[in-house]
């Protein structure tokens, strides 16, 4: 998988002075566009679209400093419809406008070309199982919150703390399917998984019971799920689990992500500093 992903990165380089076709990149990587976006974001630490933008403006910056072509020609070459749009994008990356950069020869920001490699440490193994599930329903309290990659997600913390304890207890009693008990469900994520983009967060249960008043319902279609387990400090162990799934498990197994919610069941230690967790991700087998 990583070899194919690196071929897609090479393809991006050839398309910087033009249009980068994500569907074509997905074909090069022999996977779906959906999985490519999620895989890239998890491994690179930035959305695919952001990487393309930074690489494009890195190369454009070299053309600006070279001083051979008019700035408008450079803007059009790299896909910007006007000098103003190019100047805004250029300033967002480099901190100065292209005209000022050319006049002063100031230092610009460079986004290096990415190469993905698999690092094998050998001191731990990832525990997982693959489960085929019929359709099921998530019932719970719902909020729209920002995506946070590292550190506590204050939006989720504040939302859960604001829920009525008795209502939460009654909801947990409705759990009658795996994963049992209270679960955190993330749905409708931005395809690029950019930091700060919003998602639907459910504090809920998997149940066949009618939804209580004041709760939201999320129907989930039948499909295959990869289930991962971890234990460790909160929230690092939970956030590193997502990273390791995309950096280690997907490149080593014949599966790819498919659209659907991500489900996390967490059991905290008495002091709240550690957790045992089970992460359910919707997957499908890669085509041979």
Characterization of this structure:
This protein is an alpha+beta fold and 288 residues long. Helix content is 39%, strand content 24%. It is built from ten helices and nine strands. It has helices at 2-15, 22-28, 33-44, 48-66, 71-77, 83-94, 98-104, 154-161, 165-172, 236-252, and strands spanning 127-133, 136-146, 183-187, 198-206, 216-220, 223-233, 255-257, 262-268, 274-285. Strands 1, 2, 3, 4, 5, 6, 7, 8 and 9 form a nine-stranded antiparallel beta sheet that branches. The longest helix has 19 residues, at 48-66. It is elongated. The two termini are 12 Å apart. Residues 121-125 have low confidence and may be disordered.
Short description:
The protein is built from ten helices and nine strands.
Features:
288 residues, alpha+beta, nine-stranded antiparallel beta sheet, 39% helix, elongated
